[in-house]
TrEMBL record:
It comes from the Bacteria. One of its GO terms (molecular function) is endopeptidase activity. Residues 147-254 form the CAAX prenyl protease 2/Lysostaphin resistance protein A-like domain. Coiled coil: none annotated. The keyword Membrane applies. GO terms for biological process: CAAX-box protein maturation; proteolysis. The chain crosses the membrane at residues 21-41, 53-75, 96-126, 146-162, 174-195, 215-235, 242-264, 270-290. The lineage of its organism: Bacteria, Pseudomonadati, Bacteroidota, Sphingobacteriia, Sphingobacteriales. InterPro entries: MmRce1-like (IPR042150), Rce1/LyrA-like_dom (IPR003675). This is CAAX protease self-immunity. Keywords: Hydrolase, Membrane, Protease, Transmembrane, Transmembrane helix. Pfam families: Rce1-like.
Length: 297
């Protein structure tokens, strides 16, 4: 029986590596979350007393465990050597570091500053004198900007490391073998957003306010994540560096948290995310035009 299960797992992995990755990732992240909160009946959009830290760690464990496990099953020892080689590949042109680190802050601040011309509520939280909502959520001193920046920097690095071992370490190289940049990015971006769904649904009613969750959650998860994932894959294709993917993911998390406006409704958050997505899609289009010109030349 054990041999049969191993053979089935190996067969699934060889034929459908990306699908196998998604399944295992969701089982670990969603399954662990459901068990921790006490079963499916405890899944609610209302405020919950579930412990945040265990929920968070269980969720981010999915991509990491799945990516590392399938790297070994699919590629063996050679796969692990390649994974660590890409993780520590840092000797790449400086412009790629600049691109990876600056796309998130430039795009998110551009969207918020444009919106702040119409309403002060959209002023990025890091530049506001009030208590930052991220600081409040994590119990940090409300007015201590230095502590907040250091905290989100470390949190972003941790998120980038554990998540990208799977999304970029294992899945991205598979996708770009058979799909073009846009298709690969949209596919992975949608799965990335869907993976966030359950954890984002918990306690989301208050955040959404008067907006239906059927509208609110899709905008939250599928607006800026797919175009940003396209840009991540574009950077990875030019560098082959998993380290750069980790840093780019860390930059996204860091500046998303730092830019969070002090007081914002669900409707206003949707407007922000949609405009942010427009900015990112514009960058994708510009890159596509430039790359096509280079091919022609």
């Amino acid at each position: 029986m054990i041999k049969a299960n191993k053979a089935l797992m190996k067969n699934l992995d060889i034929k459908y590596p990306e699908a196998t990755y998604y399944i295992i990732t969701f089982i670990i992240s969603w399954g662990g979350l459901v068990l921790l909160i006490g079963g499916p009946s405890k899944i609610t959009s209302q405020p919950t007393n579930a412990p945040f830290l265990p929920l968070y760690l269980l969720t981010v464990a999915g991509p990491m465990i799945s990516g590392v496990l399938l790297t070994g099953l699919y590629h063996g020892k050679k796969g692990y050597r390649d994974l660590f080689s890409r993780l520590f590949k840092w000797r790449i042109p400086a412009r790629w570091y600049a691109i990876a680190l600056l796309i998130a802050p430039l795009s998110v601040f551009a969207a918020l500053f444009a919106l702040s011309l119409f309403s002060p509520v959209f002023m990025p939280g890091i530049f506001d004198s009030g208590n930052n909502p991220v600081a409040s959520a994590f119990g940090l001193p409300g007015g201590d900007k230095i502590t907040l920046v250091l905290f989100v920097f470390m949190l972003g690095l941790f998120n980038g490391f554990v998540e990208e071992l799977g999304w970029t370490g294992f899945t991205t190289p598979m996708l770009i073998l058979n799909q073009n940049l846009i298709k690969a990015g949209i596919t992975l971006g949608i799965m990335w957003g869907l993976w966030h769904l359950l954890s984002n649904y918990l306690g989301s009613a208050a955040e959404a306010g008067s907006i239906s969750l059927l509208l609110y959650l899709p905008v939250m998860l599928f607006s800026f994540l797919p175009p940003f994932r396209i840009l991540m894959i574009w950077v990875y294709r030019h560098t082959g560096s998993l380290l750069i993917a980790v840093l780019m993911h860390a930059s996204l998390d860091m500046f998303w948290m730092l830019s969070m406006p002090i007081s914002i409704t669900g409707k206003e958050r949707m407007v922000w995310y949609i405009l942010w997505a427009v900015v990112l899609w514009s960058i994708v289009i510009i890159i596509g035009i430039v790359d096509n010109k280079k091919k022609v030349e």
